[in-house]
Amino acid sequence: MTYSKLCETLQGIQDLRGAQAILSWDQETQMPPKAAKMRARQMGALSALIHEQSTAKELGQLIDNVSEDELDELGKVNLREAKRNFERSLKIPASLVRELTETCSLANEAWFKAKTENNVSEFLPWLEKLVDLKRQEMECRAPGQPIYDELLDDYEPGLKETQVEALFSELKTWLIPFVKELKEAPKQPDLTLLKRPFKIEDQKAFGLETIKLMGFDFKAGRFDTSAHPFCGGVGPYDVRITTRYLEDDVLSSFFSFVHEAGHALYEQGLDPEHLGLPVCEAASMAFHESQSRLWENCIARSKAFWDFMFPRFVKQFGEPAKGLEQDRFYHAVNAVEPSLVRVEADEVTYNLHVILRFELERDLFSGKLTVAELEDAWNARMVEYLGLEPKCPAEGVLQDIHWAFAGFGYFPTYTYGNLYSAQIFDAVNKEIPDLDAQIRSGNFASLREWLREKIHRVGKRLSPDDLIQSISGQALHQSYLIDYLEAKYRPLYGLTEA
Ligand code: ZN
Known about the structure:
63% of the residues lie in helices and 3% in strands. The chain has helices at residues 2-29, 36-54, 57-65, 73-91, 94-117, 120-141, 147-153, 161-183, 200-214, 250-268, 285-299, 303-317, 326-333, 350-366, 374-386, 412-431, 435-440, 445-456, 464-472, 479-492, and strands at 221-225, 231-234, 238-243. Strands 1-3-2 form a three-stranded mixed sheet, sandwiched between helices.
Protein backbone atom coordinates (compact mmCIF):
# COMPACT_ATOMS: atom_id res chain seq x y z
CA MET A 1 0.00 0.00 0.00
CA THR A 2 2.73 2.44 1.03
CA TYR A 3 4.74 1.32 -1.96
CA SER A 4 1.94 2.04 -4.43
CA LYS A 5 1.49 5.47 -2.82
CA LEU A 6 5.22 6.04 -3.25
CA CYS A 7 4.99 5.08 -6.92
CA GLU A 8 2.06 7.46 -7.43
CA THR A 9 4.06 10.30 -5.90
CA LEU A 10 7.15 9.57 -7.98
CA GLN A 11 5.02 9.35 -11.12
CA GLY A 12 3.41 12.68 -10.29
CA ILE A 13 6.84 14.34 -10.07
CA GLN A 14 7.85 12.66 -13.31
CA ASP A 15 4.72 14.07 -15.00
CA LEU A 16 5.85 17.57 -14.09
CA ARG A 17 9.30 16.83 -15.49
CA GLY A 18 7.66 15.54 -18.65
CA ALA A 19 5.68 18.76 -19.04
CA GLN A 20 8.91 20.69 -18.56
CA ALA A 21 10.65 18.57 -21.21
CA ILE A 22 7.95 19.33 -23.76
CA LEU A 23 8.01 23.05 -22.95
CA SER A 24 11.77 23.03 -23.34
CA TRP A 25 11.51 21.20 -26.69
CA ASP A 26 8.95 23.77 -27.81
CA GLN A 27 11.30 26.57 -26.79
CA GLU A 28 14.07 25.19 -29.01
CA THR A 29 11.93 24.38 -32.04
CA GLN A 30 8.62 26.26 -32.24
CA MET A 31 8.30 29.08 -29.74
CA PRO A 32 7.79 32.59 -31.12
CA PRO A 33 10.52 34.99 -29.84
CA LYS A 34 8.10 37.21 -27.94
CA ALA A 35 7.14 34.29 -25.71
CA ALA A 36 10.63 33.97 -24.20
CA LYS A 37 9.98 35.82 -20.93
CA MET A 38 6.68 34.12 -20.32
CA ARG A 39 8.26 30.74 -21.03
CA ALA A 40 11.05 31.42 -18.52
CA ARG A 41 8.35 32.03 -15.88
CA GLN A 42 6.48 28.87 -16.81
CA MET A 43 9.67 26.82 -16.61
CA GLY A 44 10.56 28.46 -13.30
CA ALA A 45 7.11 27.70 -11.88
CA LEU A 46 7.43 24.04 -12.84
CA SER A 47 10.96 23.83 -11.40
CA ALA A 48 9.76 25.23 -8.08
CA LEU A 49 6.91 22.72 -7.98
CA ILE A 50 9.24 19.84 -8.80
CA HIS A 51 11.71 20.92 -6.14
CA GLU A 52 8.94 21.29 -3.56
CA GLN A 53 7.50 17.85 -4.25
CA SER A 54 10.83 16.07 -4.45
CA THR A 55 11.95 17.40 -1.07
CA ALA A 56 8.56 17.13 0.68
CA LYS A 57 8.46 15.58 4.13
CA GLU A 58 5.62 13.30 3.01
CA LEU A 59 7.85 11.78 0.35
CA GLY A 60 10.55 11.13 2.94
CA GLN A 61 8.00 9.41 5.19
CA LEU A 62 6.76 7.24 2.35
CA ILE A 63 10.32 6.16 1.56
CA ASP A 64 10.97 5.36 5.24
CA ASN A 65 7.75 3.41 5.63
CA VAL A 66 8.10 1.09 2.66
CA SER A 67 9.48 -2.19 3.85
CA GLU A 68 12.05 -3.46 1.44
CA ASP A 69 11.36 -7.13 2.21
CA GLU A 70 7.91 -6.88 0.68
CA LEU A 71 9.18 -5.61 -2.65
CA ASP A 72 10.09 -7.56 -5.75
CA GLU A 73 13.29 -6.92 -7.64
CA LEU A 74 11.89 -3.94 -9.58
CA GLY A 75 10.32 -2.41 -6.51
CA LYS A 76 13.70 -2.50 -4.82
CA VAL A 77 15.26 -0.61 -7.73
CA ASN A 78 12.56 2.07 -7.57
CA LEU A 79 12.96 2.42 -3.82
CA ARG A 80 16.76 2.59 -4.03
CA GLU A 81 16.63 5.37 -6.64
CA ALA A 82 13.91 7.29 -4.83
CA LYS A 83 15.95 7.16 -1.64
CA ARG A 84 19.14 8.26 -3.33
CA ASN A 85 17.48 11.25 -5.02
CA PHE A 86 15.57 12.29 -1.93
CA GLU A 87 18.52 12.11 0.44
CA ARG A 88 20.65 13.97 -2.01
CA SER A 89 18.30 16.89 -2.45
CA LEU A 90 17.79 17.19 1.31
CA LYS A 91 21.47 17.57 2.09
CA ILE A 92 21.93 20.76 0.10
CA PRO A 93 20.70 23.93 1.84
CA ALA A 94 18.05 25.79 -0.19
CA SER A 95 20.19 28.95 -0.11
CA LEU A 96 23.05 27.13 -1.86
CA VAL A 97 20.70 25.68 -4.46
CA ARG A 98 19.38 29.15 -5.18
CA GLU A 99 22.85 30.67 -5.37
CA LEU A 100 23.99 27.97 -7.78
CA THR A 101 20.97 28.44 -10.04
CA GLU A 102 21.40 32.22 -10.14
CA THR A 103 25.16 32.05 -10.64
CA CYS A 104 24.76 29.55 -13.48
CA SER A 105 22.34 31.81 -15.26
CA LEU A 106 24.69 34.83 -14.95
CA ALA A 107 27.75 32.73 -15.79
CA ASN A 108 25.97 31.57 -18.90
CA GLU A 109 25.49 35.12 -20.12
CA ALA A 110 29.09 35.99 -19.24
CA TRP A 111 30.36 32.91 -21.09
CA PHE A 112 28.38 33.81 -24.20
CA LYS A 113 29.70 37.38 -24.15
CA ALA A 114 33.27 36.25 -23.46
CA LYS A 115 33.09 33.75 -26.32
CA THR A 116 31.63 36.27 -28.76
CA GLU A 117 34.21 38.91 -27.82
CA ASN A 118 37.04 36.41 -27.40
CA ASN A 119 37.76 37.74 -23.97
CA VAL A 120 38.54 35.00 -21.42
CA SER A 121 38.81 37.37 -18.46
CA GLU A 122 35.10 38.12 -18.78
CA PHE A 123 34.25 34.53 -17.89
CA LEU A 124 37.00 33.50 -15.44
CA PRO A 125 35.60 35.14 -12.28
CA TRP A 126 32.33 33.29 -12.91
CA LEU A 127 34.11 30.03 -13.44
CA GLU A 128 35.98 30.52 -10.19
CA LYS A 129 32.71 31.13 -8.39
CA LEU A 130 31.09 28.04 -9.92
CA VAL A 131 34.02 25.80 -8.96
CA ASP A 132 33.75 27.12 -5.42
CA LEU A 133 29.96 26.62 -5.24
CA LYS A 134 30.15 23.10 -6.65
CA ARG A 135 32.84 22.30 -4.11
CA GLN A 136 30.54 23.52 -1.33
CA GLU A 137 27.63 21.54 -2.74
CA MET A 138 29.61 18.31 -2.85
CA GLU A 139 30.96 18.87 0.64
CA CYS A 140 27.40 19.17 1.93
CA ARG A 141 26.40 16.05 0.09
CA ALA A 142 29.31 13.81 1.02
CA PRO A 143 31.54 15.40 3.65
CA GLY A 144 35.17 14.32 3.42
CA GLN A 145 34.68 12.39 0.17
CA PRO A 146 36.73 13.14 -2.96
CA ILE A 147 34.92 16.04 -4.66
CA TYR A 148 35.51 14.94 -8.24
CA ASP A 149 34.01 11.50 -7.48
CA GLU A 150 30.84 13.23 -6.36
CA LEU A 151 30.77 15.39 -9.48
CA LEU A 152 31.14 12.32 -11.69
CA ASP A 153 28.42 10.54 -9.78
CA ASP A 154 25.84 13.10 -10.93
CA TYR A 155 26.32 11.95 -14.51
CA GLU A 156 27.61 8.41 -14.17
CA PRO A 157 26.48 6.75 -10.94
CA GLY A 158 29.33 5.11 -9.09
CA LEU A 159 32.11 6.28 -11.39
CA LYS A 160 35.34 7.26 -9.59
CA GLU A 161 38.11 9.65 -10.59
CA THR A 162 40.77 6.96 -10.20
CA GLN A 163 38.89 4.70 -12.65
CA VAL A 164 38.60 7.44 -15.26
CA GLU A 165 42.22 8.36 -14.72
CA ALA A 166 43.43 4.79 -15.26
CA LEU A 167 41.29 4.17 -18.33
CA PHE A 168 41.97 7.53 -19.97
CA SER A 169 45.70 7.39 -19.45
CA GLU A 170 45.87 3.98 -21.16
CA LEU A 171 43.72 5.27 -23.98
CA LYS A 172 45.78 8.45 -24.35
CA THR A 173 49.06 6.57 -24.48
CA TRP A 174 47.72 4.67 -27.47
CA LEU A 175 45.77 7.51 -29.11
CA ILE A 176 48.39 10.23 -29.46
CA PRO A 177 50.87 8.19 -31.54
CA PHE A 178 47.99 6.55 -33.46
CA VAL A 179 46.67 9.92 -34.63
CA LYS A 180 50.20 10.90 -35.73
CA GLU A 181 50.58 7.63 -37.58
CA LEU A 182 47.34 8.19 -39.48
CA LYS A 183 48.38 11.70 -40.36
CA GLU A 184 51.56 10.42 -41.99
CA ALA A 185 49.95 7.33 -43.52
CA PRO A 186 50.24 6.57 -47.26
CA LYS A 187 46.49 6.76 -48.01
CA GLN A 188 44.86 10.07 -47.13
CA PRO A 189 41.21 11.05 -47.53
CA ASP A 190 40.14 13.85 -49.86
CA LEU A 191 38.84 16.41 -47.39
CA THR A 192 37.36 18.56 -50.15
CA LEU A 193 35.35 15.73 -51.68
CA LEU A 194 32.09 16.56 -49.90
CA LYS A 195 32.60 20.30 -49.55
CA ARG A 196 29.94 21.22 -52.02
CA PRO A 197 26.32 22.26 -51.71
CA PHE A 198 23.78 19.50 -51.04
CA LYS A 199 20.16 20.63 -51.09
CA ILE A 200 18.59 20.94 -47.65
CA GLU A 201 15.38 19.18 -48.75
CA ASP A 202 17.47 16.23 -49.96
CA GLN A 203 19.41 16.17 -46.69
CA LYS A 204 16.10 16.00 -44.84
CA ALA A 205 14.67 13.25 -47.04
CA PHE A 206 17.85 11.16 -46.78
CA GLY A 207 18.06 11.62 -43.00
CA LEU A 208 14.42 10.64 -42.54
CA GLU A 209 14.83 7.58 -44.75
CA THR A 210 17.77 6.50 -42.58
CA ILE A 211 16.10 6.90 -39.19
CA LYS A 212 13.03 5.09 -40.52
CA LEU A 213 15.31 2.18 -41.44
CA MET A 214 16.84 2.31 -37.97
CA GLY A 215 13.34 1.88 -36.56
CA PHE A 216 12.55 5.32 -35.11
CA ASP A 217 8.84 5.16 -34.26
CA PHE A 218 7.13 8.25 -35.66
CA LYS A 219 3.96 7.39 -33.76
CA ALA A 220 5.95 7.75 -30.52
CA GLY A 221 8.14 10.65 -31.52
CA ARG A 222 8.74 13.64 -33.75
CA PHE A 223 11.49 15.08 -35.81
CA ASP A 224 12.17 18.86 -36.10
CA THR A 225 14.89 21.43 -36.73
CA SER A 226 16.77 23.40 -34.05
CA ALA A 227 19.97 25.44 -33.67
CA HIS A 228 21.70 22.59 -31.81
CA PRO A 229 20.62 19.00 -32.44
CA PHE A 230 19.20 17.19 -29.41
CA CYS A 231 16.98 14.36 -28.25
CA GLY A 232 14.28 15.42 -25.79
CA GLY A 233 10.68 14.79 -24.88
CA VAL A 234 9.48 11.91 -22.73
CA GLY A 235 10.28 8.26 -23.33
CA PRO A 236 8.98 5.84 -24.37
CA TYR A 237 5.94 7.43 -26.05
CA ASP A 238 6.89 11.00 -26.92
CA VAL A 239 10.52 11.28 -27.99
CA ARG A 240 11.55 14.42 -29.89
CA ILE A 241 14.70 14.63 -31.96
CA THR A 242 16.15 17.50 -33.98
CA THR A 243 18.90 18.27 -36.44
CA ARG A 244 20.23 21.33 -38.22
CA TYR A 245 21.35 21.71 -41.82
CA LEU A 246 24.52 23.14 -43.31
CA GLU A 247 24.31 23.27 -47.09
CA ASP A 248 28.07 22.83 -47.50
CA ASP A 249 28.35 19.99 -45.01
CA VAL A 250 25.99 17.17 -45.83
CA LEU A 251 27.55 14.87 -43.22
CA SER A 252 26.85 17.25 -40.34
CA SER A 253 23.06 16.98 -40.51
CA PHE A 254 23.22 13.31 -41.49
CA PHE A 255 25.26 12.19 -38.49
CA SER A 256 23.13 14.33 -36.19
CA PHE A 257 20.09 12.51 -37.51
CA VAL A 258 21.67 9.14 -36.76
CA HIS A 259 23.18 10.18 -33.41
CA GLU A 260 19.94 11.62 -32.05
CA ALA A 261 17.93 8.69 -33.42
CA GLY A 262 20.30 6.38 -31.51
CA HIS A 263 19.37 8.26 -28.31
CA ALA A 264 15.71 8.15 -29.33
CA LEU A 265 15.67 4.38 -29.82
CA TYR A 266 16.89 4.03 -26.24
CA GLU A 267 14.07 6.23 -24.98
CA GLN A 268 11.44 4.55 -27.16
CA GLY A 269 12.68 1.17 -25.97
CA LEU A 270 12.25 1.90 -22.23
CA ASP A 271 9.86 -0.40 -20.38
CA PRO A 272 6.35 1.10 -20.72
CA GLU A 273 4.99 -1.02 -17.90
CA HIS A 274 6.86 1.13 -15.41
CA LEU A 275 6.15 4.52 -16.90
CA GLY A 276 7.27 7.40 -14.71
CA LEU A 277 9.37 5.22 -12.39
CA PRO A 278 13.17 4.87 -12.18
CA VAL A 279 13.02 1.40 -13.74
CA CYS A 280 11.78 3.14 -16.91
CA GLU A 281 14.83 5.43 -17.10
CA ALA A 282 18.15 5.02 -18.93
CA ALA A 283 20.97 3.38 -16.97
CA SER A 284 23.25 6.42 -17.19
CA MET A 285 24.44 9.27 -19.38
CA ALA A 286 27.35 7.25 -20.74
CA PHE A 287 25.02 4.38 -21.60
CA HIS A 288 22.74 6.82 -23.39
CA GLU A 289 25.74 8.09 -25.33
CA SER A 290 26.80 4.52 -26.12
CA GLN A 291 23.55 4.07 -28.03
CA SER A 292 23.94 7.22 -30.11
CA ARG A 293 27.61 6.45 -30.77
CA LEU A 294 26.99 2.84 -31.70
CA TRP A 295 24.56 3.86 -34.42
CA GLU A 296 26.55 6.89 -35.50
CA ASN A 297 30.05 5.38 -35.56
CA CYS A 298 29.95 1.59 -35.50
CA ILE A 299 27.02 1.44 -37.95
CA ALA A 300 26.62 4.63 -39.99
CA ARG A 301 30.36 5.09 -40.53
CA SER A 302 30.87 1.44 -41.50
CA LYS A 303 31.62 -0.03 -44.89
CA ALA A 304 28.63 -2.37 -44.71
CA PHE A 305 26.27 0.54 -44.07
CA TRP A 306 27.49 2.49 -47.08
CA ASP A 307 27.41 -0.59 -49.29
CA PHE A 308 23.68 -0.37 -48.78
CA MET A 309 23.20 3.39 -48.47
CA PHE A 310 25.66 4.79 -51.03
CA PRO A 311 23.47 4.07 -54.09
CA ARG A 312 20.55 5.64 -52.21
CA PHE A 313 22.69 8.66 -51.36
CA VAL A 314 23.61 9.15 -55.02
CA LYS A 315 20.00 8.76 -56.08
CA GLN A 316 18.68 11.18 -53.46
CA PHE A 317 21.16 13.99 -54.04
CA GLY A 318 21.48 13.78 -57.83
CA GLU A 319 23.84 16.36 -59.34
CA PRO A 320 26.24 17.06 -56.41
CA ALA A 321 26.68 13.32 -55.83
CA LYS A 322 27.36 12.57 -59.48
CA GLY A 323 30.75 10.99 -60.14
CA LEU A 324 31.42 10.25 -56.45
CA GLU A 325 33.26 6.96 -56.02
CA GLN A 326 32.14 4.87 -53.09
CA ASP A 327 35.63 4.09 -51.79
CA ARG A 328 36.72 7.71 -51.75
CA PHE A 329 33.39 8.73 -50.29
CA TYR A 330 33.79 6.13 -47.52
CA HIS A 331 37.26 7.42 -46.65
CA ALA A 332 35.99 11.01 -46.59
CA VAL A 333 33.21 9.96 -44.20
CA ASN A 334 35.93 8.51 -41.96
CA ALA A 335 38.55 11.23 -42.27
CA VAL A 336 40.68 11.55 -39.14
CA GLU A 337 41.92 15.08 -38.81
CA PRO A 338 43.14 16.78 -35.62
CA SER A 339 41.00 19.85 -35.07
CA LEU A 340 40.50 22.49 -32.40
CA VAL A 341 36.78 22.10 -31.80
CA ARG A 342 35.40 19.05 -30.02
CA VAL A 343 31.95 18.97 -31.62
CA GLU A 344 33.50 18.83 -35.09
CA ALA A 345 35.99 16.09 -34.22
CA ASP A 346 36.05 12.62 -35.81
CA GLU A 347 35.57 9.42 -33.81
CA VAL A 348 39.31 8.98 -33.18
CA THR A 349 40.52 12.44 -32.13
CA TYR A 350 37.27 13.18 -30.28
CA ASN A 351 38.49 11.24 -27.26
CA LEU A 352 41.60 13.39 -26.90
CA HIS A 353 39.37 16.46 -26.61
CA VAL A 354 37.50 14.74 -23.79
CA ILE A 355 40.64 13.53 -21.99
CA LEU A 356 42.05 17.06 -22.06
CA ARG A 357 38.89 18.46 -20.44
CA PHE A 358 38.80 15.73 -17.81
CA GLU A 359 42.41 16.40 -16.81
CA LEU A 360 41.83 20.14 -16.48
CA GLU A 361 38.64 19.70 -14.44
CA ARG A 362 40.34 17.22 -12.15
CA ASP A 363 43.25 19.62 -11.60
CA LEU A 364 40.91 22.56 -10.98
CA PHE A 365 39.11 20.67 -8.23
CA SER A 366 42.24 19.21 -6.67
CA GLY A 367 43.74 22.70 -6.48
CA LYS A 368 46.64 21.76 -8.74
CA LEU A 369 45.47 24.27 -11.32
CA THR A 370 44.02 27.73 -10.78
CA VAL A 371 41.34 29.28 -12.96
CA ALA A 372 43.88 31.94 -14.01
CA GLU A 373 46.20 29.22 -15.38
CA LEU A 374 43.44 27.40 -17.21
CA GLU A 375 43.83 28.88 -20.69
CA ASP A 376 47.58 28.27 -20.85
CA ALA A 377 47.11 24.74 -19.60
CA TRP A 378 44.43 24.15 -22.23
CA ASN A 379 46.58 25.46 -25.07
CA ALA A 380 49.67 23.52 -23.97
CA ARG A 381 47.70 20.27 -23.89
CA MET A 382 46.13 20.93 -27.29
CA VAL A 383 49.62 21.18 -28.75
CA GLU A 384 50.79 18.09 -26.90
CA TYR A 385 47.76 15.93 -27.79
CA LEU A 386 46.66 17.19 -31.19
CA GLY A 387 49.54 19.30 -32.44
CA LEU A 388 47.37 22.39 -32.76
CA GLU A 389 47.26 25.68 -30.92
CA PRO A 390 44.00 27.64 -30.62
CA LYS A 391 44.26 31.10 -32.15
CA CYS A 392 41.49 32.47 -29.96
CA PRO A 393 39.59 31.39 -26.81
CA ALA A 394 36.39 30.79 -28.80
CA GLU A 395 38.09 27.85 -30.47
CA GLY A 396 39.94 26.99 -27.28
CA VAL A 397 39.03 27.15 -23.63
CA LEU A 398 35.69 28.93 -24.21
CA GLN A 399 34.27 26.63 -26.87
CA ASP A 400 31.98 24.48 -24.70
CA ILE A 401 28.98 25.59 -22.68
CA HIS A 402 29.38 22.85 -20.01
CA TRP A 403 31.46 24.78 -17.50
CA ALA A 404 29.10 27.73 -17.75
CA PHE A 405 26.29 25.58 -16.32
CA ALA A 406 28.64 24.03 -13.75
CA GLY A 407 28.54 20.71 -15.60
CA PHE A 408 31.84 19.53 -14.14
CA GLY A 409 32.19 15.76 -14.45
CA TYR A 410 30.00 15.65 -17.56
CA PHE A 411 32.71 15.42 -20.26
CA PRO A 412 34.06 11.97 -19.34
CA THR A 413 30.65 10.45 -20.18
CA TYR A 414 31.24 11.23 -23.87
CA THR A 415 34.31 9.02 -24.09
CA TYR A 416 32.72 6.49 -21.77
CA GLY A 417 29.92 6.38 -24.35
CA ASN A 418 32.47 5.55 -27.04
CA LEU A 419 34.11 2.91 -24.85
CA TYR A 420 30.79 1.28 -24.03
CA SER A 421 29.67 1.39 -27.66
CA ALA A 422 32.77 -0.48 -28.85
CA GLN A 423 32.40 -3.12 -26.15
CA ILE A 424 28.67 -3.54 -26.85
CA PHE A 425 29.35 -3.71 -30.60
CA ASP A 426 31.85 -6.49 -30.00
CA ALA A 427 29.26 -8.43 -27.97
CA VAL A 428 26.46 -8.00 -30.51
CA ASN A 429 28.71 -9.18 -33.34
CA LYS A 430 29.48 -12.33 -31.39
CA GLU A 431 25.80 -13.01 -30.73
CA ILE A 432 24.61 -12.10 -34.23
CA PRO A 433 27.46 -13.46 -36.37
CA ASP A 434 25.96 -12.26 -39.67
CA LEU A 435 25.23 -8.73 -38.44
CA ASP A 436 27.59 -7.22 -40.99
CA ALA A 437 25.73 -8.96 -43.81
CA GLN A 438 22.41 -7.81 -42.38
CA ILE A 439 23.57 -4.18 -42.28
CA ARG A 440 24.88 -4.56 -45.83
CA SER A 441 21.38 -5.50 -46.95
CA GLY A 442 19.75 -2.66 -45.02
CA ASN A 443 18.35 -4.80 -42.25
CA PHE A 444 18.76 -3.11 -38.88
CA ALA A 445 15.93 -4.87 -37.07
CA SER A 446 17.85 -7.59 -35.28
CA LEU A 447 20.47 -5.11 -34.04
CA ARG A 448 17.74 -2.80 -32.76
CA GLU A 449 15.85 -5.63 -31.04
CA TRP A 450 19.04 -6.94 -29.46
CA LEU A 451 19.84 -3.48 -28.03
CA ARG A 452 16.24 -3.17 -26.89
CA GLU A 453 16.29 -6.42 -24.99
CA LYS A 454 19.78 -6.17 -23.51
CA ILE A 455 19.86 -2.43 -22.73
CA HIS A 456 16.76 -0.31 -23.40
CA ARG A 457 14.20 -2.44 -21.56
CA VAL A 458 16.56 -2.92 -18.64
CA GLY A 459 16.45 0.77 -17.70
CA LYS A 460 17.96 1.34 -14.28
CA ARG A 461 17.49 -2.26 -13.15
CA LEU A 462 21.26 -2.72 -13.38
CA SER A 463 24.03 -0.28 -12.52
CA PRO A 464 26.27 0.73 -15.46
CA ASP A 465 28.98 -1.65 -14.18
CA ASP A 466 26.59 -4.60 -13.90
CA LEU A 467 24.96 -3.77 -17.23
CA ILE A 468 28.19 -3.89 -19.25
CA GLN A 469 29.13 -7.04 -17.37
CA SER A 470 25.81 -8.65 -18.30
CA ILE A 471 26.27 -7.69 -21.95
CA SER A 472 29.89 -8.57 -22.54
CA GLY A 473 30.84 -10.75 -19.58
CA GLN A 474 33.57 -8.29 -18.65
CA ALA A 475 34.04 -4.94 -16.97
CA LEU A 476 34.52 -1.89 -19.18
CA HIS A 477 37.94 -2.00 -20.82
CA GLN A 478 39.69 0.35 -23.22
CA SER A 479 40.95 -2.50 -25.41
CA TYR A 480 37.58 -2.83 -27.20
CA LEU A 481 37.64 0.73 -28.49
CA ILE A 482 41.34 0.49 -29.35
CA ASP A 483 40.86 -2.78 -31.26
CA TYR A 484 37.82 -1.41 -33.10
CA LEU A 485 39.67 1.73 -34.20
CA GLU A 486 42.82 -0.17 -35.17
CA ALA A 487 40.86 -2.69 -37.24
CA LYS A 488 38.97 0.03 -39.05
CA TYR A 489 41.54 2.76 -39.64
CA ARG A 490 44.77 0.84 -40.34
CA PRO A 491 43.53 -0.63 -43.63
CA LEU A 492 41.63 2.53 -44.52
CA TYR A 493 44.82 4.61 -44.28
CA GLY A 494 46.95 1.99 -46.06
CA LEU A 495 48.86 1.02 -42.91
CA THR A 496 47.87 -2.65 -43.25
CA GLU A 497 46.29 -4.77 -45.96
CA ALA A 498 42.51 -4.44 -46.16
ZN1 ZN B 1 24.68 12.35 -27.61
